[in-house]
Amino acid sequence: MSEGGANMNTLPPAAQVESNKPAPKERVYYADWIRAIAITLVIFVHCLVNSFDASGLDPEEVPTIQ
Predict the structure, then answer these.
(1) Using CA atoms, how far apart are residues 66 and 58, in angstroms rounded to an integer?
(2) Is the dihedral of CA 29, 34, 39, 41 positive or negative?
(3) What is the pTM of this model?
(4) What pLDDT was estimated at residue 38?
(5) Are the C-beta atoms of residues 59 and 65 closer than 8 Å to each other?
(6) Would you list the DSSP string of 5-53?
(7) What is the tens place of the pLDDT at every residue in 18-58?
(8) Phi, psi angles (nearest 5°) of residue 24
């Protein structure tokens, strides 16, 4: 027995082991960009809404922001 307790003579060589992994798919990079922009816009809009709420600004008093 070799170190670690495994008998290396009974294991098949790495070249003979078949992989069950599917072939890698081509990555769709534009989907990553759309996702990143969507997350950024959600954060921006929520921060903007919270800043209006915290400022105490009444939209009825300022007709230009309606």
Answers:
(1) 10
(2) positive
(3) 0.49
(4) 97
(5) yes
(6) S--TTSSPPGGGPPP-PPPPPPP-HHHHHHHHHHHHHHHHHHHHHHHHH
(7) 668 888 888 888 999 999 999 999 999 999 888 877 777 77
(8) -65, 140
